[in-house]
């Protein structure tokens, strides 16, 4: 089933990937509620005006896709958009649900090691590390927060990449090959928030 989605991204470096994601959604792109290349330029608008526009876009969605790019933290909006996505907002008689969130890691310099280098553990298993300095605190605090954790390896204490964290990090090419898989995974977690210790504030 298609989900209404919003894409949070740094405009100056991730617009091309945003467009690829919208294209990869295929027929489901009609449920996409965020900016497109045809959207009006808001750069000269006030902060309050921009926030109001973003709130309207995010409010009706159920999944937020966050593009993880090298200079993401320079954005004035991404962490706020994640925070708003996680909150339950009441308007009139309706309360929005907590959005599922999936991070799409941008390929940079031909790969993903800029954010997620791999190492081999002493038991021979490969572990993927994350350089948290590239991530907002609200993303870090919503990773490895399954409660109780379900380990795929009791020795390594590795968790499943899709269920072990509320905000999973997915390689750009994997997401583009099957966006519905990762959107549905994020949505399912949003319906089972009791399984996670959520941080809702940036």
Provide structural commentary.
The model has no long low-confidence stretch (mean pLDDT 89). This protein starts with a strand and ends in a 12-residue tail after the last helix. It has six helices and ten strands. The protein is globular, with a radius of gyration of 17 Å. The chain is an alpha/beta fold and 202 residues long. It has one domain: Rossmann fold (3-Layer(aba) Sandwich).
Distance between the termini: 30 Å
**Residue-averaged pLDDT, rounded?**
89
Class by alpha and beta content? alpha/beta
Low-confidence residue ranges: none
What integer value in Å does the Rg equal? 17 Å
Strand content: 15-25%
In percent, how helical is the residue content? Answer: 25-40%
CATH topology: Rossmann fold
Total strand segments: 10
**What CATH architecture would you give?**
3-Layer(aba) Sandwich
Order of strands side by side in the largest beta sheet?
A: 1-2-5-10
Largest sheet: 4 strands, parallel
What top-tier CATH class fits best?
A: Alpha Beta
Approximate shape: globular
* Count of runs of 4 or more consecutive helical residues: 6
Please tell me the total number of domains. 1
How do the strands and helices of this protein lay out in sequence?
Layout: E1 5-8, H1 11-24, H2 47-59, E2 63-68, H3 78-86, E3 90-91, E4 94-95, E5 100-105, E6 118-120, E7 126-128, H4 137-140, E8 151-153, E9 158-159, E10 167-171, H5 172-177, H6 179-190
Parallel strand pairs: 1-2, 2-5, 5-10
Antiparallel strand pairs: 3-4, 6-7, 8-9
Main attributes?
two-stranded antiparallel ribbon; 29% helix; Rossmann fold; 202 residues
């Amino acid at each position: 089933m298609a989900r209404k989605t919003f894409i949070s991204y740094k405009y100056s470096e991730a617009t091309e990937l945003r467009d690829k994601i919208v294209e990869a959604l295929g027929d489901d792109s009609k449920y996409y509620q965020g900016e497109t290349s045809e959207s009006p330029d808001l750069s000269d608008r006030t902060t309050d005006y921009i926030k109001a526009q973003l709130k309207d876009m995010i409010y009706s969605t159920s999944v937020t896709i966050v593009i993880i790019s090298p200079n993401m933290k320079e954005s004035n909006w991404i962490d706020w958009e994640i925070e708003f996505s996680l909150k339950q907002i009441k308007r009139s008689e309706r309360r929005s649900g907590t959005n599922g969130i999936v991070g799409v890691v941008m390929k940079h310099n031909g790969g993903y090691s800029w954010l997620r280098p791999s190492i081999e553990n002493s038991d021979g298993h490969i572990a993927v590390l994350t350089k948290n300095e590239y991530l907002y605190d609200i993303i870090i605090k919503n990773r490895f927060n399954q409660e109780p954790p379900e380990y795929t390896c009791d020795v390594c204490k590795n968790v499943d990449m899709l269920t072990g964290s509320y905000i999973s990090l997915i390689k750009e090419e994997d997401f583009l090959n099957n966006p519905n898989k990762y959107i549905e995974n994020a949505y399912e977690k949003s319906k089972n928030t009791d399984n996670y210790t959520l941080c809702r504030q940036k």
